[in-house]
Design goal:
Blueprint (H helix, E strand, L loop, with lengths): L26 E4 L4 E4 L2 H9 L9 H16 L6 H20 L1 H5 L10 H10 L9 H26 L22 H17 L9 H16 L3
Antiparallel strand pairs: 1-2
Helix pairs in contact: 2-3, 2-8, 3-5, 3-7, 3-8, 5-7
Length: about 230
Amino acid sequence: MEQKFDPEMLRPAEYVCEPDPRNTMFVRLDRTNGTSRAIELADRHEEISRYILHAGVPQEIVIQFETARNLYLYSWFVYRFYSVAEHHSLACLELALHMRLKEEIKTGKIKGKRPTLRPLLQYAVDHGLVKNKGFSAWQNRGEINSRKRVEMEKLREAIEMNLDKITCDESEIQITAEDLDWNYVKVLADFLPLSRNEYAHGSTNLYPAAAPQTIRIISEIINQLYEL
């Protein structure tokens, strides 16, 4: 198919509402019947609509977060907006931390007149403002580990009893402390500042799949910071 415009350059006015051709290469698989269809703008909207801030978050932060969500949505038309959306969501996180921890900054509990993302996020983690249980990824990891453990136990039982088949009851999937032994907040406290700095100091990175995940994580952090 002949390309109508160069997606890396300023979009000609007549093609402003055309999707970036790179987005049209992806498909959505229906696992129930094995069929697939091209991903549409509505799919992107459905995806980013899941990540919202609750009513306790100050409006100044909400507006910046909504800007990040809209940037992600409009990445459908401009592929490189994925990176812009992720960068802006990280800036929104830093703003949220500054506003939430303004007294701690003022009283010197956090060093520096304008501390950066790393010490702010680390302070929030160290003082329990952000916890593992507040992240869907941490909860999902526990369920995955629990399910795997039960399946292995059933397999061992089948081998020992020489059974032809095994069944797993969903009620047996009970998440234990061992399943949840993953300090997710420590990973985020190390990784997010690195990601933010890379964008802030200039980067050619382009990871479309990372943008919605970063926006989701940041929504979960901010919602914890301003917990109702």
